[in-house]
Fold this sequence. Notes:
alpha+beta, three-stranded antiparallel β-sheet, 3 strands, about 25% helix
Amino acid sequence: MNIKEYYGFIYITTCKVNGKKYIGQKKFNRGWKNYLGSGTILKQAIKLYGKDNFERVIIDKAKDEEELNLKEIFWIKFFDAVNSKEYYN
């Protein structure tokens, strides 16, 4: 993947302990490789289970901020992440 072509990405972070997931966005900037997410509940889960018990998968990429924001909304709605008990969103 040539990240220079893209502004940012959409990811799903999954807890290996309980299978719960988090959908979010991140710019390709400093720290992106190890980034797991910034949601409050997700951060609490990372603190509880430890970073090693989470994995992140990039599911989409965007060329600018507007596209990134729209894609994040799309994927959160697609998986119904806000209403699902399977997600930290």
